Amino acid sequence: xxxxxxxxxxxxxxxxxxxxxxxxxxxxxxxxxxxxxxxxxxxxxxxxxxxxxxxxxxxxxxxxxxxxxxxxxxxxxxxxxxxxxxxxxxxxxxxxxxxxxxxxxxxxxxxxxxxxxxxxxxxxxxxxxxxxxxxxxxxxxxxxxxxxxxxxxxxxxxxxxxxxxxxxxxxxxxxxxxxxxxxxxxxxxxxxxxxxxxxxxxxxxxxxxxxxxxxxxxxx
Length: 220
Fold this sequence. Notes:
- By secondary structure, the chain is of the alpha+beta class.
- The chain is built from three helices and 17 strands.
């Protein structure tokens, strides 16, 4: 909302009941209470503070990294709606920093991923150059542009030789040695992911290791 401060807002639809300013909400994904002290209604670039909202209203809550797409906020008894599905990444790029602003680089990538713009994967020994996964190739250009204009970071995204990402469903599963262009990585929540060079490699791996369950979408 403000380029000088990069403040972020999460848009929330009130599904039932009444929202009041300063009420305490719980985020079912993390199980932590939070106080909704800054709630806004938007019209174009203008915003106004609101004190009340009702079922059907859409409001904005200042988001210092507390919310993710698909979160359920509630009061009283725990409740959680079904997660919003994420499309599997089809294009991958290796993010490289061209200057020394590592803190801004990492923060920019983290916040852009929280928006749902991309997915981040970290290969062991290459954490300084994470792999970015997106649905459309043009999103790679959007990422470099936003890193430059919003975070003051000079970075580039070089095409990476991956075509599919699959999460390992069981965290205790031993992953056998991988051939071809595949690699084991971790996502932002330290969950193991196998990056494959082609859909054929995915199918071959599944045929050779039927006991290992792979997920095309990130687990909740």
